[in-house]
Specification:
The complex is a heterodimer.
Chain A lengths: L3 E10 L7 E11 L4 E6 L5 H8 L7 E6 L2 E2 L7 H7 E4 L12 H5 L1 H5 L4 H15 L15 H13 L5 E5 L7 H18 L2 E6 L2 H7 L2 E6 L2 E7 H5 L2 H6 L6 H11 L11 H14 L1
Parallel strand pairs in A: 3-8, 3-9, 6-7, 7-8
Antiparallel strand pairs in A: 1-2, 1-4, 4-5, 9-10
Helix pairs in contact in A: 5-6, 5-7
Chain B lengths: L15 H4 L2 H17 L3 H18 L3 H8 L3 H14 L8 E3 L2 E3 L1 H26 L4 H11 L10 H31 L9 H32 L18 H28 L1
The chains are: A alpha/beta, B mainly alpha.
């Protein structure tokens, strides 16, 4: 269990050039342990920058990233150790596969940690099962697999490092609804069995409503609002203001509420909407 | 990181040099390069340097950027200068005589000449061509200039297309490399291992995905081109039709003047020497 905190973090791309661009300005976030926190925002809101700051791939221009209260760039500390503790799954991670076999690709991270071979094998098998990679595929080349399978192998590659915190940047981008559900459920199961913190980065409010516990809404490099999923969905106008689409079911219930048919603000699941509509019908 | 590498180094703008026809600029650069090596005395070399500075001024590109472009070749310049200073021998008495090391006046003169030559070569040609001509326009120009070779069955168009595509994909692949490096770093890949074999091995996690994605992109591009009925040169029209204008005539006139002045200045010194 580890605690990750951003403290007044700003990040500027290509400083002192004509292309200078401030991606984050004075952002402070505290990621709650053991929970799935969703960072959501429109393209260019700075959410992917946050991901790379969390494991020290980028160094903040000002402010600090704290892991268990310690600055990850503090003198004498080894940033590569931070990367083993904060696992980061990039967007479209299937493009980083390179090994001859699926097993070896998943084992790349744990091997870099210099673990003993039995432990590596255990971790590979365990991670593969959470990510939904069949053991039959272990001896295949990763390049023979389908897109969805590749994605799962890549996610397993990070899970196999058994980080305390796992950050996933758009893990379901480009997948069909079924592939998406499988990946998110795998992540949820992994969190439950490892007691770890999960940070999901996405632009889909729909996915967030289903899988996140807490949500941070970002816009133009700033935190617009944050809180539990319930709290954030009470502020639908803020979500819209950040340029994001609200889930369809939220749009429907919002319209029904506006017309005085039901009393349901901030509904984001079909079940809840079903309940409310039934309630309203009974009252008639 | 990798993105800071500027290849092609085109700076968009609307100066007199930007507006010249690319073919004119290619020919002018060739003339310029030849003339740089024609110049052989103080007067003509000074004139060269002045010309280079005038070209920078004409291009509207800040001197700072131009100076920055010289930095990478600084080592080469210093190296050439040092070699010239120490290895030139002449019949007059050496200026410095430390046993094996003898430095002659002629050596220092040669070194200075060499420095001026290289500097004006780099500044002149980069300002004339790479800084003020976008890579695509440049390839267009090359294709048109090489067109006569088609009669000899040289696939000029195909070469030009290959070059255009290659140039187009440099930034894309750089960005991709950056991403892959970050992704492998996140998996604990170390690029600071010791020994040549280990170092090479450490780059496999970058090279393999990079090659895979390059082939994938090539495949996709080929399909996309075929879908739009690309069949090579035959019957193909252009979006930008190159056209000579009066500006180009002026540029050519100046270049003739430039050669004449250099030749003349070369002559002056011979006259003075006599």
């Amino acid at each position: 269990m580890s605690k990750l905190t951003l403290e007044n973090v700003s990040y500027v791309y290509s400083p002192d050039t004509p292309f200078e661009k401030e991606a984050l300005s004075n952002v402070s976030i505290e990621f709650k342990e053991n929970r799935i926190t969703g960072i959501i925002g429109h393209t260019g809101s700075g959410k992917s920058t946050v991901a790379q700051l969390l494991n020290g791939l980028l160094k903040s221009t000002s402010g600090r990233v704290l892991l268990d209260g310690q600055d990850i760039f503090e003198k004498g500390s080894d940033v590569s150790k931070v990367r083993f503790r904060v696992g980061l799954v990039f967007q479209y991670p299937e493009y980083q596969l390179f090994e001859e076999t699926v097993w070896r690709d998943i084992a790349f991270g744990p091997s870099n940690m210099k673990l003993d071979p039995n432990e590596i094998d255990r971790r590979v098998r365990s991670a593969a099962s959470f990510a939904g990679v069949d053991e039959e595929l272990f001896e295949k080349s990763p390049f023979e697999l389908s897109g969805g399978q590749k994605r799962r192998v890549a996610i397993a590659g990070i899970m196999a490092m058994e980080p305390d915190i796992i950050v996933l940047d758009e893990p379901a981008a480009g997948l069909d609804p079924r592939g998406r559900d499988e990946i998110f459920n795998g992540i949820k199961k992994w969190r439950d069995s490892h007691n770890s913190t999960v940070i999901l980065i996405s632009h889909s409010m729909e996915d967030m409503a289903l899988y996140a516990d807490d949500i941070i809404v970002m816009k133009d490099g700033k935190v617009l609002t944050s809180g539990t999923v319930d709290q954030v969905f009470q502020r639908v106008d803020v979500i819209k203001q950040s340029g994001l689409d609200i889930p369809q079911i939220t749009a429907v219930t919002e319209e029904l509420t506006k017309r005085g048919l039901i009393d349901g603000n901030g509904i984001y699941t079909v079940d809840k909407a079903y309940e409310k509509i039934l309630e309203a019908l009974k009252e008639r | 990181m990798l993105k800071d590498i500027t290849l092609g180094q085109y700076f968009s703008g609307d100066s007199a040099l930007h507006r010249l026809d690319p073919r004119t600029k290619i020919i002018l650069v060739l003339i310029y390069v030849v003339t740089v090596f024609l110049a052989k005395n103080l007067f003509s070399l000074t004139f060269l340097l002045v010309t280079a500075i005038v070209l920078v001024a004409l291009s509207g590109i800040s001197a700072k950027i131009v100076l920055r472009s010289i930095k990478p070749v600084m080592i080469l310049i210093i190296f050439t200068a040092v070699i010239n200073i120490f290895l030139t021998t002449s019949t007059d008495a050496p200026l410095i005589n430390w046993g094996v090391i003898k430095i002659y006046k002629q050596g220092i003169v040669n070194a200075v000449f060499m420095i001026v030559r290289i500097l004006s070569l780099i500044i002149g040609s980069s300002v004339l061509l790479t800084y003020t001509t976008s890579p695509i326009t440049l390839t267009d120009g090359i294709e048109r200039l090489l067109k006569p070779l088609k009669k000899l069955h040289v696939p000029v168009h195909d070469f030009a297309m290959m070059m255009t595509i290659a140039l187009r994909f440099i930034p894309t692949l750089l960005e991709e490399t950056d991403k892959i490096i970050s992704a492998q770093k996140a998996r604990g890949a170390g690029f600071d291992s010791k020994g040549l074999v280990n170092k090479a091995k450490a780059f496999l996690p970058i090279l393999i995905p990079l090659f895979v994605s390059a082939f994938r992109r090539a495949d996709e591009l080929a399909v996309a081109m075929e879908c739009r009925c690309y069949r090579g040169d035959e019957g193909r029209t252009r979006m930008r039709v190159l056209k000579y204008s009066s500006k180009d005539a002026v540029a050519f006139a100046f270049s003739v003047l430039f050669i004449l002045v250099v030749v003349l200045l070369n002559g002056i010194s011979t006259a003075l020497a006599i």
